[in-house]
Design brief:
Elements (H helix, E strand, L loop, with lengths): L2 H10 L1 H4 L3 H45 L3 E3 L41 H6 L31 H9 L1 E5 L8 E7 L6 E5 L6 E5 L3 H6 L7 H8 L5 E5 H7 L7 E2 L3 H17 L6 H11 L66 H16 L8 E3 L49
Antiparallel strand pairs: 1-7, 1-8, 2-3, 3-4, 5-6
Protein name: GmrSD restriction endonucleases C-terminal domain-containing protein
Pfam family, one: GmrSD_C
Keywords: Membrane, Transmembrane, Transmembrane helix
């Protein structure tokens, strides 16, 4: 550095002029190194943030357009997955015991779900102590002796575009497409990844155990776990989000789906002598108040023809008969009246409702008005994994009195009709 440059530096930076030349050089290179390190860190952090934004954006977009699952109280615990049924059928050594039928018939033909609700017993929830899935038998069994396990029976019933396996075993589903009855999502099923579609119990095994299921025999619990009335093919994420919740803790998002979902639960609980908790009853009443004409699903029709099925042998029993069945809890309502008949073929009109049923329904209606239930979600969450309860013919609005009821179509995979409780069993025909 010449003398003039040194004088200029000394004038501008007097402190620099006081440092030895070696110290000044070291300070200069230290500053350069610090700037280089800072630039490198900025580049690294900026790249990481950019990649994170690219990865997260699709997930955020998908979540914003997905249908939320509604919890009325709280979502299930992470342990929910441990109670999921297996994918494969039970081993060939697993047999169906005698008496694997429901202790009661399904509701009478064209029973309104809201009137069925008014006659349901309400009791405290029992402890879950002793509950294990094995208490309801191995899954999945061939309870209807058609050569196929229950899981594949339900897959063939609920999936569209079903293709069987190529090994000559027509009952095993290789692929198909599912419209989830609870979320409306479309799920492509392939046997190579069967866990994407689960078979869900509308009334869960755990809920049944705590509300009367402990009083059922093992054979009756096996019938419950394999009853097509209680089963739906759903997406795995839906099965996990619903898990073992009752209606007070979980409902489908759409109101129409809620109506058919609640009506199905009532039919199942009637057939197996199960009761409701007070919270469960109140939420069901609030749901059905928006769709009072919803019918309870049933395999019984006005024709009173019995075509078989898991509940065929009990068709003559009263709808709810706590006096004759230890499986139904004591207390609460005594049961449905079996005096109401199906529509008369002569005039096509519905029979008048029994006076006792009307009075009970009025009491239920007044109770709903005095204690309104808010069923809006307390919290929402996007389902954990990937599909809605198919609209059942039984859950549609009843025809007007001037229209004659049309006979309901039957199919090998649908719930089969049974005789009315007031009609004697015709017995086997030649």
């Amino acid at each position: 550095m010449d003398s003039k440059a040194a004088e200029a530096v000394a004038a501008d930076f007097p402190e620099e002029s006081m440092l030895p030349s070696r110290a000044r050089r070291l300070r200069f290179w230290a500053m350069i190194s610090a700037w280089v390190v800072a630039l490198v860190l900025i580049a690294v952090v900026g790249g990481a943030l950019r990649e994170a934004l690219v990865d997260v954006s699709p997930a955020v977009e998908q979540e914003s357009f997905s249908t939320p699952t509604i919890y009325l109280t709280s979502p299930p615990s992470p342990a929910a997955a441990t109670d999921q049924p297996p994918i494969d059928p039970a081993p060939a050594s697993a047999s169906v015991p005698a008496g694997a039928v429901a202790p009661h018939p399904q509701p009478a033909y064209r029973t309104l779900a809201i009137k069925l609700l008014a006659l349901m017993p309400i009791k405290a929830v029992q402890s879950a102590a002793g509950y294990q899935r094995s208490k309801f038998g191995a899954a999945w069994l061939d309870v209807n002796n058609n050569g196929c396990d229950t899981r594949n029976d339900i897959l063939r019933r609920d999936l569209s575009n079903v293709k069987p396996t190529l090994d000559g075993h027509d009952c095993l589903v290789q692929s198909g497409q599912l419209s989830d009855p609870y979320s409306g999502d479309t799920v492509v099923f392939d046997r190579k990844n069967p866990a994407t579609v689960q078979i869900d119990q509308a009334v869960s095994l755990s809920d049944a155990w705590r509300k009367g299921g402990q009083g059922l025999s093992l054979a009756q619990r096996i019938a419950f776990a394999n009853d097509p009335l209680n089963l739906n093919a759903v997406a795995a994420k839906t099965a996990l989000s619903k898990h073992n919740a009752d209606a007070s803790a979980w409902l489908p998002t759409e109101m129409d789906d809620r109506c058919s979902y609640v009506a199905r639960q009532l039919s199942v609980k009637v057939s197996y002598g199960l009761w409701l908790s007070q919270d469960e009853h109140d939420v069901m009443a609030a749901v059905l108040a928006n769709c009072p004409q919803t019918l309870a699903p049933s395999n019984r029709t006005a024709s009173s023809k019995q075509l078989g099925g898991p509940m065929a042998d009990d068709a003559q029993q009263p709808l709810i008969a706590p006096e004759s069945s230890s499986a139904l809890p004591s207390g609460g309502q005594s049961g449905l009246s079996t005096s109401s008949a199906p529509p008369s073929p002569e005039n096509g009109s519905e029979q008048a409702e029994p006076a006792s049923a009307q009075a009970t329904a009025q009491q239920s209606s007044s109770a709903q008005q005095s204690t309104p239930v808010q069923i809006s979600p307390m919290s929402t969450t996007t389902p954990f994994l990937p599909t809605a309860l198919p609209t059942l013919p039984e859950c549609s609005t009843p025809p007007s009195p001037s229209a004659s009821p049309q006979p309901e179509p039957s199919s090998p995979e649908s719930i089969q009709p049974g005789p009315s409780p007031s009609t004697p069993n015709p017995g086997p025909t030649s």
